[in-house]
User: Fold these one by one.
Assistant:
Number 1:
Amino acid sequence: MKRIMILSAAAFVLSACCSQPKFEGPVYLNPNAHVEERVEDALARMTLEEKVGMTTAQSKFSSRGVPRLGIPEVWHTDGPHGIRPEVLWDEWDQAGWTNDSCTAFPALVNLAATWDKEMSLLYGRSIGEEARYRKKDILLGPGVNICRTPLNGRNFEYMGEDPFLAGAMVSPYVKGVQENGVAACVKHYAVNNQEFQRTQSNSVVDDRTLHEIYLPAFKAAVQEGGAWSIMGSYNLYNGQYNCHNKKLLVDILKGDWGFDGVVVSDWGGCRVSEEAILNGLDIEMGTWTNGLRGAASDSYRNYHMADPYLKGLREGKYTTKELDDKVRRILRLIFRTSMRPEPNYGRFVCPEHYQAAREISAAGVVLLKNEDNVLPLKVAEGAKIVVVGENAVKKMVVGGGSSNLKTAYEVNPLEGLQNAFGDKAEVVWVRGYVGDTSTSYNMVDTGQDLTDNRSPEVLIAEAVEAAKDADYVIFVGGLNKSAHQDNESTDRYDTFLPYGQQDVIDALAEVSDKFVVVNISGSPVSMPWEDKADAIVQGWYGGTESGNALADVLTGKVNPSGRLPFSIPFKYEDGPIKTERQYPGIKEEGDQFWQTHYDEGVYVGYRWYDSKNVPVQWAFGHGLSYTSFEYSDAKAAKASMKADGTMKISVNVKNVGECDGHEIVQLYIADPVASIDRPAKELKGFEKVYLKAGETAMVTFEIDAADLSFYDVAKGGWNAEPGEFQALIGSSSADIRATVPFELK
Ligand code: GLC
């Protein structure tokens, strides 16, 4: 590395003395000056009012720049799945632009289900290009809150139940976005795992659980992804609002992790002036105008960090210490984004983005069950395929809350199948059930009228009649991002299918022997009807190209390689949450807040089910392929590893089936002899490997002491205790193919 550094230094000197014209003008405007030089120069030129001005919103989605110095305002935009349609200056109402129909990329849970870091980088680059083209500086996403309860309304916006998977998958997305000179804003920091009473709920979490489960994905986004901004969440943690939580923002994020970016409040998440000023909030957004449309035009001056802050500074209540830190961070973000050295202009709704959306979504589709290889579909000339269900035709890029999108088009599952078979087979659709027929979500119109006043009996009879002589029956149901069905600010009430879908499945199973059920959802759906279906596919909110992506998998054009990013229980009650106190929390007489106690500790998701030997319907990491893989010769490179060393664990994987495909080899660590209770296994590695039919590859994992550690509260840090460990290598958390013991010295 040293040699390379010398070379580049020489090259720099050479180029500096020859080609670069001497920049005339203030340092902060010099694109070739070091960011920190630009920051200090700009800061020194700003007045007190200008500094305070930068720390608050000036409109619904922008915060102030410094007009006098030619430092632009900062434009924020939702969301994690695509660039939200423009809203009015101070309202949530649509601005009615005609040039802001974006590419809707798959929901982040769909990305997580790919277990593919390359796909995550492609996603980040693509959505970053769209944000750049729309001249946005901060993309309000991705979200990485852990799926603690299957009922959380925003699981679809996040990356599953495991911190290692979420951390590994979020970092490439962040890098891809930021390559475009757009800041990713990782949210919602932190322990924000339910929508119920989200603005008045206090998460009571012990330190070990906080560090082992709820922080790692954020830490990875900051330290591996290099995130330039973070969004504080609405809820409280240990009694303090998270948008100005000293422990989370000052001590951990900016202290321990060395975060040099900007903390943005959630819209309306800032509540207390003094805490906001002293506890690390940098930009206050959406106060009072958080969807309540209560804003008076001058409400921005009343923001907690606007005139009250200026008043406090003038009265000497505050020095400029905190203010200068906030402004340095905001300037740093501006010099990384709108005033970045290399201007680029991004791309919007281009074929490459549509193709990326299609590939990413297809790579995350999970084949749960495939009896007698009923899939992929084998469709003869003139065959009849009956598609049943509202989710086969319902627009899904809308809904869900702030992540909803306006797109130029959306290919639904019915269209995807018609595109695949249209000229060869008869592809007909029947309603099957009526779900949500709203024509607008969060002020984005669907352009659909799904009104249907027929009774369930009539609808089922119609579906059965159509199915009787069909070669294949494909039921497409699930949830739909309407209220309580995967939607911000509303959690679900249970994990079963709504709208009487099970009755339709039961009836269709009676008349079809090639019956495929596609569940489209962003959170776990229990399937008591599992034995009724010959094949079951977990589909997702796949974005603009969702229908084509699903058809690619059903037809075999894409061999499914998706793996579940969360466990799917037989029923909600099997999970780790047993009391109201745990979820949705309890509100004592006189207490302003709901108290949500994370009593289950680290036993979240498969950590709970595996450690307590509770069977699940579908396990974390589960997913079938159209081929199959055998594992052999799993071994450790040596019998033991030192605390400051590493250990290589390798395994041979062979594709023993008829078609090429991807396998996702998963590495879990078990610590059978530990001084404290630890989960039966914890994901610490995964590799996606492509194997042609008959091909074998060796997959090698390299682990270190950090991978073996638990968070030791007594020590206030990570602790890998010497002794025996086991590397569990498998095709899912419930399909361990090899156990490799080794010792930590
Ligand atoms: C919402 C969401 C947040 C979103 C913000 C702006 O309430 O919690 O994810 O980015 O407000 O719409």
Note: The longest strand covers residues 646-655.
Number 2:
Amino acid sequence: MRAAGAVASAVLEEICAWITPSVTTKDIDQHAASCIRSHGAKSAFLGYRKYPCYVCLSVNEEVVHGLASDRHVQFGDIVGIDVGVLFRGYIGDTARTVAVGGCDVLAQKLIDVTEKALYEGIAQARSGKQVSDISRAIQTYVERNGFSIVREFVGHGVGRSMHEEPQVPNYVDGKPSPRLRPGMTLAIEPMVNAGGPAVQILRDGWTVVTKDGQPSAHFEHTVLITESEPEILTWPAKHLLKPKAR
Ligand code: MF3
Ligand code: CO
Ligand code: CO
């Protein structure tokens, strides 16, 4: 899981560094494909329930599962990039939202709050706590900052398969909540809307968008529960980021 996490985050890092105004999301997806390949990994998304792309690219009001297309990303857009790789039998799953060049103040606050909410959640990912402690920390932080939590999609256990038990909601649902134990690996992934929480799925069957057209952000890490501090597995290991000799 550590190796898969390191590869996933290295790929995410490489994609973020490569995005620039005027490239299409298809270009980004193709670049992602070659990054994943160069690490000897496979996309965990391509073909998953017939998903047609290597990574998920969600622009502005797109929440998650955006499909690569001929759309050019522009200065001021925010792009959610979700990378899932299969490496030596295990999955690493990580996402980040970045501004293309720069973005307006509201979108930047949305990005910052969503990222901080992820770390608030991760701080609760400790043995003896419950999944709902993660959920509560995320929800409290997001709502205190005036943004809303998407309900329809949640974090999850991750291991040999991408989506394993338990579900990790980003809000408190009042249901009995599993106890966290050392060795569990969770994908924690707040999806946060600037406007209302409602979302809908486009006719392509995949792209999730906000109903009110306001922007949305998404951050995700794969996290290991230990005897003490949570261990974030989706940090890029420096040796994986060295530029290749030409
Ligand atoms: N990576 C998403 C998650 O974080 C799942 C993407 S499923 C796909 O759980 F089919 F869209 F790739
Ligand atoms: Co993901
Ligand atoms: Co995930």
Note: Residues 82, 84, 93, 95, 220 surround cobalt (II) ion (ligand 2) (CB under 6 Å).
